[in-house]
Amino acid sequence: MGFLCYKPVALAPNKTLIGITGSIGSGKSTALSIFGELGAVTISSDAIARTFTEPNSPVKGDLVNLFGTKILANDGTILRSKIAEIAFSDETKLKALNDLLHPLVRQAFLSFFESQNPNSIVAWEVPLLFETDAHTICDFTVTIYLPKEQNWERVKARGGMELADFERRTAAQMDIEKKKFLSDFVVTNDTDREGLKEQIVIIYKEIQKRIQI
C-alpha cells in the first residue's frame, strides 16, 4: 500500500469523492463494498452502464445501429456478452461504445452524487478512472493492484472468460503501473478479503483525517 500527496478538487466542497480503479479481476468491487462497510456511500460505473443495456434502454437503438441485430436475443434482450465480444475485438467499435455510454454514465453519477447529504464520503468504482479523466473530479484516488498473472488466475477461477479475451480487455486499459503512479493510494490485493480490508481501513482513516484538517 502506498500514499501519494493529496490533490483536492472542488466538485462539491461539502462532500468527499473517492475514485476507485484497478485492472480486471483486481478486486475493485470487493474494495468498493469494504468502503461501504466503513461508512461511505458507494456507486459503481459498471452498474450504471448496465442500466443502459436493459431491455428498455434509451440507447438500445444506438447500440443496434453500432453493433447490429446480432447483439439482440430472440426476445429483443440486449446481449451484453455479445457487445463485449465485438467491442474488445475492434478498437473503433470500442471507442464508439465508450463515446456513447461514458457521458451517460458520468451524468447519472453526477446526479447521484449531487443527491447525497452534505459531508458524505462517496466511493465510486470506475474501471477507466484515468482513461476518461474521471479522476479530475475526485478528491482522492485509489488503485487496487494485483500482478497480471494473479489477475488472470482470479478471472479464470470466476469463469466465463478466455485468456485471449482477458488480454484484449487488459490492453484496452491504461497500464496498471501508470495507474499506480497517478493514484493517491495504492492497495495490493494479493492475499484475502481481510488483508484487503486492513489496508482500506488505514486509507479510510487517513482520508477522514485529511478532510477534517
From TrEMBL:
Domain of life from the UniProt record: Bacteria
Main location per the UniProt record: cytoplasm
GO BP: coenzyme A biosynthetic process
One Pfam assignment: CoaE
GO MF term set: ATP binding; dephospho-CoA kinase activity
An example Gene Ontology CC term for this record: cytoplasm
EC id: 2.7.1.24
Binding site for ATP: G25, S26, G27, K28, S29, T30
Compartments (UniProt record): Cytoplasm
Catalytic reaction(s) noted: 3'-dephospho-CoA + ATP = ADP + CoA + H(+)
Pathway: Cofactor biosynthesis; coenzyme A biosynthesis; CoA from (R)-pantothenate: step 5/5
InterPro entries noted in UniProt: Depp_CoAkinase (IPR001977), P-loop_NTPase (IPR027417)
Keywords per UniProt: ATP-binding, Coenzyme A biosynthesis, Cytoplasm, Kinase, Nucleotide-binding, Transferase
Biological role stated in the UniProt entry: Catalyzes the phosphorylation of the 3'-hydroxyl group of dephosphocoenzyme A to form coenzyme A.
Similarity section: Belongs to the CoaE family.
Protein's UniProt name: Dephospho-CoA kinase
Lineage, broadest ranks: Bacteria, Pseudomonadati, Spirochaetota, Spirochaetia, Leptospirales
